[in-house]
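REQUEST ID: PR-0412
SUBMITTED BY: lab tech R.K.
PRIORITY: routine
TASK: structure prediction, single protein chain
INPUT:
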Amino acid sequence: MTEVPAEIEERRSRAKAWFESLRDRICAELELLEDEAPYELYPRAGQFDLRPWTRETGIGGGTGGFLTGRFFEKAGVHTSAANGRFTPEMAQTMPGADKDPNYVSASISLILHPRSPRVPAVHMNTRFLSTAESWFGGGADLTPPSTSSAVRTRRTRPPSTQRSAPPATPTTRRPTASTRRVRRVLLSATPQRAARALAASSTTS
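STATUS: complete
OUTPUT:
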């Protein structure tokens, strides 16, 4: 590994600190959902178990947060920071890696699998990555809630000669309060929000 420039290391350190702070906020909100969930769903509200880990290759590691509870069947929120070197094949796909395949990174990722089929499952990751260039990236996917009840309603509803509003569909159904809360928390983890937070911290430091 070549020596990491001080400016890049400082930016990575600030990104890492912000991701870890965000991890703690997300974990606190998810534990609050666990506390508010009906007791009948599961007898014990879950709490996150934070476990440090170290990379087997390269340099770095992070903290993995794991939860099994009554609202979430499984939830994981993980942060990491690492130094490494891209393979020649991977370097061809990464900005700046053709000049220097070494990289430094910091990231946050999460997986949320609720017990209720009415609450969407979520997978998300956001990362700071620096080669000869630096950027924030990532992605997320939201698995739609079950629509079987809506489909069943449309199939069994008797015909009517009166003009009326169409039955509820996945695009018109109001999200539950729990879904809205999870959505607000996760929106703070987008690459755009991460980049703005890093820029703001540099102007105040």
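NOTES: The two ends are 29 Å apart (CA to CA).
REVIEWED BY: pending
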